[in-house]
Amino acid sequence: MYPLVMPTYYIKMLSLFLIMGILALSVDLLWGYTGLLSFGQAAFFGLGGYTYAITIINLLCKVVPESLSHYTVTCRPGTTYLPVMLGVLVPAAVALVLGYFMFYGRVRGIYFSIITLCVPLILEYVTTNMVEVQVGNIPIGGYNGITDIPIPALGLPGAAIFPLDTALRFYLLVVAAALGTYLFSRWLVQTSFGRVLVSIRENEGRTESFGYDVRRFKLWVFTIAGAIAGISGLLFSTLGSYISPWSFNFVLSAESVIWVMLGGRGTLVGAFVGALVVQLLENILSGAFLYYWLLILGLGFVAMVLVLPEGLVGLVREWQFKVAGRAGEEQIAAEKA
Q1: pTM flag (> 0.70)
Q2: pLDDT tens-digit map of 85-122
């Protein structure tokens, strides 16, 4: 009930925290459960945002150029199912193709991380230099990005359109997306597929010797993680009605790894906890320490990793085990007495 009475700014901040949590969730599926340290999730994040923006503006809007970098967008009401679907499928397809060449090319370890690091850097460079390029009737905009991106809308053919045009409605959409991706990921890791992923993380060679096609499992989880990152990207593009080459930035990929590390690798819920804590600290510290907040935050991360290698969720679980152990010992002592 709390978001119902919050100012619009804070509702949007909560939406942003959850959107970034979805991105961190895609990292945790790869790194936490499969042992694949990817620095390229920002590539699929940006692809999801750009795909949604380009598709919906071409589908529902009229673009009137005013100058090389400025234009006005006039949109008619309509549902956004196709742009949303493509915003998920395009990053998944790119992840599928990229993963195929990496995994079936036997790319492993640090070489996998380096390749995934290069992909968002390439995409950021390409989109930054697409100043005069148009896709359909929408300019890519280069460094300025794409603006005036329409909000998602629900509805049925011939029925009333229900736009998610308030901060609260959009927040509820983000909550549904975060809950859906989390429950799907939780179900996935509890299936036999998920158990094979954990086996790959622990000992890839032994898993392969048992007859599993390790490359196929890694390819599918990489594709799924790309789709989840795409969901995060398309939601981000509609939050501020804006997407730019920053969405491909390496810093975003590195931050998502930090979120997972801080929250708790291999926990899923730790992805959201880490994203929430880090972004909250960034907002607080940047206001209190204008020039030194990054240094303070960095030193805090180093200390947290050294003191809590299992992350915040791991700390809570360890405390629960200790409490349960003491309760068991007390019960045994009471029975003996």
Answers
A1: yes
A2: 999 999 999 999 999 999 999 888 889 999 999 999 99
Helices (H), the chain: 8-27, 33-34, 41-60, 81-103, 109-128, 167-190, 192-202, 204-209, 214-239, 250-263, 269-288, 293-307, 311-336
| pLDDT score of 238 | 92
The answer to whether residues 219 and 120 touch, using CB atoms and an 8 Å cutoff, is no
Q: How many CB atoms lie within 10 A of CB 169?
A: 16
* Cβ–Cβ under 8 Å, residues 85 and 152: no
Is 149:75 a contact under the CB 8 Å cutoff?
no
C-alpha span between 186 and 269 (Å, rounded): 9
- Distance CA(267)–CA(186), nearest Å, equals 9
48-84: pLDDT as tens digits: 999 999 999 998 888 877 665 677 777 777 778 899 9
Query: Dihedrals φ, ψ of 184, to 5°?
Result: -65, -45
- 182 vs 38: CA distance, rounded Å: 19
The CATH number for 140's domain is 1.10.3470
Please spell the DSSP secondary structure of 305-336, one letter per residue.
HHH-TTHHHHHHHHHHHHHHHHHHHHHHHHHH
Largest CA distance in the chain: 86
Residue by residue, DSSP assigns 91-116 as HHHHHHHHHHHHHTTT--HHHHHHHH
Tell me the pairing of strands 146-147 and 61-65: unpaired
- Domain encompassing residue 76: 2-336
pLDDT in tens, 149-181: 888 888 776 566 777 778 888 999 999 999 999
Our count of domains for the chain comes to 1
Determine the pLDDT at residue 325.
63
Which residues does 27 contact at the CB level (< 8 Å), separation at least 6?
38, 41, 225, 256, 257, 259, 260, 271
CA distance 266 to 190: 12
